[in-house]
Design goal:
Helix content of chain B: under 10%
Order of helices and strands of chain A: EEEEEEEEEEEE
Oligomer: heterodimer
Number of strands of chain A: 12
Order of helices and strands of chain B: EEEEEEEEEEE
Mean pLDDT of chain B: 93
Radius of gyration of chain B: 13 Å
Chain lengths: 109, 115
């Protein structure tokens, strides 16, 4: 079946550092890809999405590019802030939405 | 500001009791998902509805869990009887299917503790 694999956390960075969270997927069809973010005590919020190969999703300084040839959708941000501390989930949707296990991000001031 | 509403936000119950969690999807959305989140398993899909019809409940323990949509404004997830291993945060999400790429919007979750 379809699956999503993302890098284990926690990831700890200093403020203004460059962020990459790796995500790869396995799918029988041609899925759409998403990154969601979860802040403590809250539900998941959509951060960005891409629906076809080579699409780049972007929001709040975060970016991810749909790479069909490598089945990847890595999340990047050029300069992280303390407020970016959260859990980040990579997900795919062909029919139902399948999530990775999440990567906890800590940003130190 | 449209949002998915889940009730209750917190529930503590004794083992063996029935638990009912409720979800009000965003008005006009035609798909509803139920997920369970634990530290060990992450986000597990329990059930998925489109136009109130169940499409996939393969992730749900059938002997004790049931999910329904009595109408387009209400989805329910019931556990009977509850067990300590059911302790988790249960999320409902809704979306509008219009082909590929449609995301889901999540509620705040119900934190269930079974003692």
């Amino acid at each position: 079946g379809d699956s999503v694999t993302q890098m284990e956390g926690p990831v700890t960075l200093s403020e203004e550092a460059f962020l990459t969270i790796n995500c790869t997927y396995t799918a029988t069809g041609y899925p759409s890809l998403f990154w969601y973010v979860q802040y403590p005590g809250e539900g998941l919020q959509l951060l960005l999405k891409a629906t076809k190969a080579d699409d780049k999703g972007s929001n709040k300084g975060f970016e991810a590019t749909y790479r069909k040839e490598t089945t990847s959708f890595h999340l990047e941000k050029g300069s992280v802030q303390v407020s970016d501390s959260a859990v980040y989930f990579c997900a795919l949707r062909d029919d139902k939405i399948i999530f990775g296990k999440g990567t906890r991000l800590h940003i130190l001031p | 500001d449209a949002r998915v509403t889940q009730t209750p936000r917190h529930k503590v119950t004794e083992m063996g009791q029935e638990v009912t969690m409720r979800c009000q999807p965003i008005l006009g959305h035609n798909t509803v998902f139920w997920y369970r989140q634990t530290m060990m398993q992450g986000l597990e899909l329990l059930a998925y509805f489109r136009n109130r019809a169940p499409l996939d409940d393969s992730g749900m323990p059938k002997d004790r869990f049931s999910a329904e949509m009595p109408d387009a404004t209400l989805a329910t997830l019931k556990i009977q009887p509850s067990e300590p291993r059911d302790s988790a945060v249960y999320f409902c999400a809704s979306g509008f299917d219009r082909g590929r790429g449609t995301e889901a919007f999540f509620g705040q979750g119900t934190r269930l503790t079974v003692v």
